[in-house]
Structure formats: structure tokens, C-alpha cells
Amino acid sequence: KVFISKIYNLSVFRYLVSGGTAFTIEYGSFLALFYLLKFGSITSNTVSFILGLLTSFLLNRLWVFSGDNYQHSSSRQLFSYIILALFNLLLTNVAMIYVVNLGIGAYIAKVILIVMVASWNYIIFKTLIFKNDKTIS
């Protein structure tokens, strides 16, 4: 019971759970837009990215890196989050074009891109955006 409690309290565990939730929403909406509704890969990527972004921000702020002692206001956190998201969106759209043009399926490219973005985002969230003197490591 103590072990499970310690794991649950690790921000990296919470990040993985919230990331899995955001991934499910982002990837599911991408597949629906691209394959069911026949939107292009860039439109599908952009809309699904925004849905994943909103889910991710809320879960990260309220659960993963939650605390009363943030070094930045919620509006500054949101602004920083959006700037990072725009960078990620631009990068993933360019990469999506490149990878799809290589003949790799869009559904595989999307997974690769999500994993890449999630990796560097954790570090940026923990050390910059949601920096909190009381954040559990």
C-alpha cells in the first residue's frame, strides 16, 4: 500500500497517466478526423493537437504539478504553455509532412511525434512552466 502511494505521488507517474489521457483524446480525434471525416493530415493534426493541448494543460496544472506555491501565475503558465504548444504544433506539422511523404502512414507518424513531444515537454513543464517549490519529484 505504501509503495503504491509513493508511485501515485511521483510526478512522472502522474505525467504518464495524464499524458495517456491526452494521447487518447488527441490520437482518437486525429483518427476520426483523418480517416472517418476525411480531413487532410495537417488539419487533422492541428485540431487533434489543440484538443490534446487543452486536456494536457488542465491535467498538468491541476494534478501532475499541482501545488499552492507556483513560481508563476496561472495566466503566465497558460501563456508559456501556449507558446510551447505553438512551437510543438509547427514542428509536428512539418514533421508530419516529411514523414508521410516518406511513405510512413499518418497513424504511425502521429504516434512517433506524440512520443517525441511528450519527452521534452515533461522537462520543460517541471523546470519552467509549472515550477513549484513543493513539486514532488
Characterize the structure shown.
- With 137 residues, the chain is mostly helical.
- Helices cover 80% and strands 0% of the residues.
- Helix 2 packs antiparallel against helix 3, helix 3 packs antiparallel against helix 4 and helix 4 runs antiparallel to helix 5.
Tally of separate helices: 5
Helix content: over 70%
Instruction: Summarize model confidence as the mean pLDDT.
Output: 86
* Strands, count: 0
Rg calculated over all Cα atoms: 16 Å
Q: What is the subunit arrangement here?
A: single chain
- Topology order in helix (H) and strand (E) letters: HHHHH
Strand content: under 5%
User: What structural class results from the helix and strand content?
Assistant: mainly alpha
Which shape, going by the Cα principal axes?
globular
Q: How widely separated are the two ends?
A: 19 Å
- Poorly predicted parts: none
Main sheet specs: none
